[in-house]
Amino acid sequence: MKIYEKAPAKINLMLDVLHKRPDGYHEVEMIMSMVDLSDRLEMSALPGDTIIISSQAGYIPLDEKNLAFQAARLLKDRYDVRSGVHIHLDKKIPVAAGLAGGSSDAAAALRGLNRLWNLGISQEELKKLGEELGSDVPFCITGGTALATGRGEKLTPLSAPPQCWVILAKLPINVSTADVYGRLRADELVSHPSAARMRAAIEQGSFDGVCRELGNVLEDVTLELYPDVAHLKNTMIRLGADGVLMSGSGPTVFGLVSKESKVPRIYNGLRGFCKEVYAVRLLT
Ligand code: ATP
């Protein structure tokens, strides 16, 4: 028996860091949306007690460091599952890119294994389990568009933003999320993006409003470390994207575009110097 799950990437329409908490995590406010760029997981039952991870992508760990492995291990331990699984990851989401590829794989593994092993776990419980694997995993369990607070695990579902094209571009730079957060001086930030205003723009179905309210306090940190990312962002603006922002801790930069006729020019203009460019839709 085989189970398939899609694991879509997310983008941050806004990301604010309020302060660093005594437990070391940062208190955040983020509005996240899924986009139609997905990894695909194929899960097959194994007779023994083993967990095997395979992938066509040569650059991710295939051992217990893989988040899909950790998801399987967690379910086996908590629910005393005696059978094993082979999870094949068909990776399409760029790795260490600010698109939550690993978190989405973990969420898809939890959803898929819940079915494969007939565990009957509720979505609420899956989100709690996901929280143990990473702050973005609960959002990846539910998907759609949501406001995330706390360390990213407290979710308020939002209506879908106005449909548009999302052009994603990633330079060959791997950014460490921990490093970017480590360099951020949250108490010295002079301006903050507004979750309330972005939420209002989404609820009003205002594409212009969404573009206007895009903001990410991690952007300045990553752009200072990697000036090429700043150049990529400026190029996307110059090519005519309606709103441009870095996702998560980067380095992926995304542009929102309402008119389909503009997409080829922006896509081709970026492909001139950036190998990884994708034109996708929001998953609404
Ligand atoms: P986030 O936006 O949540 O910070 P990210 O998109 O920046 O995540 P990921 O693609 O999730 O980053 O990868 C971060 C690290 O996690 C990588 O360096 C990789 O070694 C590790 N990792 C573990 N499991 C996976 C997986 N299934 N897919 C991709 N990376 C994984």
TrEMBL record:
The enzyme's E.C. designation: 2.7.1.148
Gene3D superfamilies in alphabetical order: 3.30.230.10, GHMP kinase, C-terminal domain
GO biological process: isopentenyl diphosphate biosynthetic process, methylerythritol 4-phosphate pathway; terpenoid biosynthetic process
Catalytic activity annotation: 4-CDP-2-C-methyl-D-erythritol + ATP = 4-CDP-2-C-methyl-D-erythritol 2-phosphate + ADP + H(+)
Gene Ontology MF term list: 4-(cytidine 5'-diphospho)-2-C-methyl-D-erythritol kinase activity; ATP binding
Pathway noted in the entry: Isoprenoid biosynthesis; isopentenyl diphosphate biosynthesis via DXP pathway; isopentenyl diphosphate from 1-deoxy-D-xylulose 5-phosphate: step 3/6
A UniProt-annotated Pfam family: GHMP_kinases_N
Keywords associated with the record: ATP-binding, Isoprene biosynthesis, Kinase, Nucleotide-binding, Transferase
Domain GHMP kinase N-terminal: 66-144
Domain called GHMP kinase C-terminal: residue spans: 198-274
Sequence positions that bind ATP: 94-104
Active site feature: 10, 136
NCBIfam families, per database record: ispE, PRK14608.1
Family: Belongs to the GHMP kinase family. IspE subfamily.
Protein's name according to its UniProt entry: 4-diphosphocytidyl-2-C-methyl-D-erythritol kinase
Record organism: Paenibacillus apis
Phylogenetic placement of the source organism: Bacteria, Bacillati, Bacillota, Bacilli, Bacillales
